[in-house]
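pasting for ref
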Amino acid sequence: AYSTPRAAMRAVSPGVVRAAPAPVATRVAMVATGPPQTGLFTGSKPSDRHIEPDDLNGRTQFKVVYVVLESQYQSSMTAACKRINAQQEKVAVECSGYLLEELRDPVNYEAFKKEVAEADIFIGSLIFVQELADKVVEAVAPHRDSMSACIIFPSMPDVMRLQKVGTFEMKNAGTSKGGLSDFMKKNKPNGATFEDGMLKLLRALPKVLKYLPNEKARDARSFMLSFQYWLGGSPENLEAMLLNVASKYVAPIASNELLPESVIQDPRLIPDRGIWHPGAKEIFVDVDSYLDWYRREMAPANGIDFDTAPTVGILLQKSHINTKDDGHYVSLIQELEARGAKVVPTYSGALDFSVLIDEYFYSAEGKQAVDSVINLTGFALVGGPAKQDHPAAVECLRKLDRPYLCALPLVFQTFEEWKESELGLHPVQVALQVALPEIDGAIEPIIFAGRDGLTGRSVPLADRIAVLAERSLRWANLRRKPNAEKNVAITIFSFPPDKGNVGTAAYLDVFGSIFSVLKGLKKDGYDVGDVPETIEALIDSVLHDKEARIASPELNVEYRMSVDEYRRLTPWASDLEENWGPPPGQLNSDGQNLLIYGKKFGNVFIGVQPSFGYEGDPMRLLFSKSASPHHGFAAYYTYVEKVFGADAVLHFGTH
């Protein structure tokens, strides 16, 4: 789970790069202080997605400016505007789109303010980062009243209060005042998000409108219809949304009746939530019908043994399916199936994804129907990027009791920007999509998709999708594997690497702890071989000498890895030669082989992790950008993974 490709290449030790949890997503503070290539904000250009007609031909033109958190709507909005300009005889549209993170760039923000001042229609969606919400309000508020319409989909309350669709407003958003707020508060499910309430309001709209004056009812209906179009997400839906709003609220178009209702199609929608598979012709709304289809058609076509294959549940965002920006989803599903797994890919249009787990990941008898779960939204399980409910998420996941991986697509950076960035993953995305999901209980935040800078579409990263599929299946199969067959590697280390420090740690009894764990493993059915009867005997069997140094000849050598085997099993071995020369090198080596210190007890390997090689140069150890593990260090973890075949690695004494 490394933040940058370079780090992934260089980091051989399976240490985890962790982010400090953020208390709430909406308070992430980060100031852009450098040029785009530093990674502090995206260098993509809003001007690249600017749309205007090639020739007006006397048509009436209206201008749309939009800003969205994620990029999947970008290509649909572009296609929608091009359709209008190509097909409409009396109207045309000019459109400028911004990704929320682009507003951090002062040049982009100034351009944004200028375009907002000229806009007939402004659209904002999922604006949940506080300082960027403030920027949007600062730019839009002075011009809101002069705009034909200002349409805000779920965002922070300050942004929602910009809402203006005719007489329909949300000036009391975020407060207890106002009929709409009262209705949503009384009718949304416990723990539901604002978006959940909006979806329920859509379904109950006829009941609400009868309490509103005619004009307000018309305008409320227009807003909710716009929200339906937006949730539909396809170019056809967004085209109809723009035409519908323009026909009613852009004065020159409305007064001259340039857009009759006959040219505006109704929303084309899929269910709010369901099971979506790229190989199916329909959306499934219950798990039994999906599994019946999968058994009859999908499993035989892919050579999957339906009755014995591991099952991976997947959580998806409806917006990616609506906008047809689903290539990264399709790639992972196909990769899992190619490895012999069944998949249950579920989606939701709201931000409470725990509903999908409760509804689709259990059998009719109430038993767990999946072996592992991957959340591809990258967001917290309940609340997404908005208001998280971690206790509800923990309760849901504890009940399911299955490994829960939260992978993430790049959102605020293009693939190229992320690849070249020394910063790695954007700090806001680290907070929203690494730290917050970890509070729920998510593990292994692997970046599995990039973002195309020109179109905004998601690009699957094949090597990382392969890693994600492999990790999810390893977790799935580990649960099924009998304890007696599981291989456990226990790693001890020595710092500083001096006499008598092997397997020690401040105020910790390392070997005493290992001894207790071995007894516990044996009790649980693990094969621990002939465990020494005392802690002292265990120390002697591994170290031979309590005062041994980390590379001392007194240490027990469990395995000698030839240079040929090392090169064959360690794909990045040649990259290490920049700092360490050709293998085997001088560390953890007898001059011909790379030495793996430690000892096996049945299916348990107790190993001594090599030194980093930089202990005499602490500044290099801490700050060097080109530092890499030496060959002996790489060989140790190559042995653990590919020769010993560890199912789990436990570190003792590591700080």
